[in-house]
Specification:
The complex is a heterodimer of chains A (about 400) and B (about 80). Chain A has about 400 residues and is an alpha+beta fold. Chain A has 15 helices and twelve strands. The two termini of chain A are about 20 Å apart. Chain B is globular and about 35 Å long. In chain B, a hairpin with a 4-residue loop joins strand 7 and strand 8. The chains are: A alpha+beta (about 400), B mainly beta (about 80).
Chain lengths: ~400, ~80
């Protein structure tokens, strides 16, 4: 039986939620932007009107203001976005249990088995579109197709508040003329390489030889070639499915540049505590640490190393991070942003190989202290206990949302 | 139109159903709700926000009363 897949995309998610909550913003160029004082002053999302002025996501506020003088910027309200994202998912759940979210604002729905109850894919898509508009005052654009890749392409064709159907008979004329980088799986680097072979559109990729694609891009090449030809068989994961976690990290842009290793150490320590909390939440241990350092010229580098003993402890993670930093970073410029990431994750109760040179007792002690700190914070709040060196730390912006985990690749 | 948060008296029955009984306006005046005509999830298109929308009759007039999950609000004329 032919599958019916929907890809639903909340149009300009953050910006339209802001406009929905505050009707005075409607019909005006609005952008959701980070705080300038915390040096997070970039555009996170923009309304249709702002888009028409050429405002782009990711550019600095002043750049956007040059294109659009009367641009209204509002601060982000993540709790509202999460709330509405969940409410939209509640609406999807009325039609199917096969819902695979892709970020806050996108989701795939497999409605193959729902058609007898609710009508064809197109009818369901229109129902969802109408319901979301009526109940939540938000608009979605939905692509209906026989696989996930084409459904996603379809949802981008007409927006906002529209449904696009792509069938086996018309995908060539509807999709093949699109630039190849519109397709999921083709990023900047792959597109550049494709272009160097004179391949610009999805259709041009589809008609090249499969073996050639494999020779150029390896396994991904075959995959992309199949996607372009409508041969994507990946399934929509059931509601609530969690992709296995590969790493847990936390990073911030500091409110002022860090000028010495001591300052970097304090930021690492503060970040590691969050990583520690999440590691323990997922019952995982890190056997490696990775840091990303961005200097004040926005140039960033990444370093990583293995840990002698796998750990959850904030102190040990921070210590490994600062060791990495000191041995690798040359102070040509001051540091603007850092990230600490726990990598090579293993289950908490995986047996660890001991060795003669590491002090196991010390490791256990540190772990115990960090566990206690974590527990105290959980029970009595973030400020119940913290490292003395973090008192009156001014360069760490407060109320920073945790790094959002972007969804993993959908394939397979 | 203006969004006005209001005090509401509710009755919740043993099955969990909630029925609003009266609304107290900003100036303290209390209005009895004669009848609940309709209940559904809807966006408050005129003042912004969403919630469970109660279509109620107060003194012969139909009006909307929204429960946004935390508070109750109405769409005020002025």
């Amino acid at each position: 039986m032919e599958r019916v897949i929907l890809h639903s995309d909340l149009n300009a998610c953050y910006a339209s939620i802001e406009c929905m909550l505050n009707p005075e913003l409607r019909g005006k160029p609005v952008a959701v932007a980070g705080n300038i004082e915390d040096r997070h002053g970039i555009i996170l999302a923009k309304s249709q009107e702002a888009k028409e002025h050429g405002v782009k996501t990711g550019e600095a506020i002043w750049e956007a203001r040059q294109k659009c003088h009367d641009l209204i910027t509002v601060a982000p309200h993540y709790d509202e976005y999460i709330k509405y994202s969940n409410l939209v998912r509640d609406i999807y759940r009325r039609y199917t249990d096969l819902i695979e979210p892709f970020g806050l604002d996108e989701a795939w729905l497999d409605v193959t088995g729902s058609q007898r109850l609710f009508g064809t894919g197109e009818e369901i898509a229109n129902d969802i579109r109408e319901t979301v508009k009526y109940e939540l005052g938000l608009t979605v654009s939905i692509g209906v197709s026989f696989n996930k890749v084409f459904a996603k392409l379809g949802s981008d064709l007409k927006k906002p508040d529209a449904v696009t159907v792509i069938t086996r008979n018309d995908f060539k004329e509807k999709l093949w003329h699109l630039p190849a980088n519109e397709m999921i799986g083709i990023g900047r680097a792959t597109y550049k390489k494709l272009e160097s072979f004179g391949i610009h559109t999805i259709g041009e990729l589809a008609v090249c030889r499969k073996e050639w694609a494999a020779a150029q891009f390896g396994k991904c090449g075959t995959e992309l070639w199949m996607f372009a030809n409508g041969l994507d068989f990946s399934r929509v994961m059931p509601d609530g499915y969690r992709t296995p976690i590969k790493s847990i990290g936390h990073g911030i842009t500091c409110s002022a540049d860090l000028v010495d290793a001591n300052e970097v150490w304090r930021v690492f320590l503060s970040l590691s505590q969050d990583v520690n909390r999440r590691l323990s939440h997922y019952n995982l241990k890190a056997s490696g640490v990775q840091i990303t350092v961005k200097d004040c010229n926005l140039f960033s580098r990444q370093f990583q190393k293995k840990l002698a003993i796998p750990t959850q402890s904030a102190t040990e993670l921070a210590r490994a991070a600062i060791e990495l930093f000191i041995s690798n970073y040359r102070w040509n410029y001051d540091v603007r942003a850092v990230t600490v990431r726990a990598i090579d994750l293993i289950d908490e109760d995986t047996p660890a190989q001991l060795d003669f040179f590491s002090d196991m007792r010390k490791h256990e002690k540190t772990q115990k202290i960090d566990d206690t700190v974590l527990e105290l914070r959980r029970r009595f709040g973030e400020n119940a206990i913290f490292n003395a060196c973090l008192m009156q730390e001014e360069k760490i912006p407060h109320g920073n949302p945790t790094e959002s985990v972007m969804p993993m690749r959908m394939f397979r | 139109m203006r969004k006005v948060y209001v005090d509401v008296t509710l009755r919740q029955d043993k099955y969990g159903t909630i029925v609003p009984l009266s609304v107290t306006w900003e100036d303290g005046t209390r209005y009895e709700i004669d009848r609940v005509i309709d209940v559904r999830r809807a966006a408050a298109t005129k003042v912004g926000g969403t919630g469970v929308r109660f279509t109620v009759r107060i003194m012969g007039r139909e009006t909307y009363l929204f429960d946004d999950g935390e508070r109750w609000f109405v769409e005020a004329k002025l």
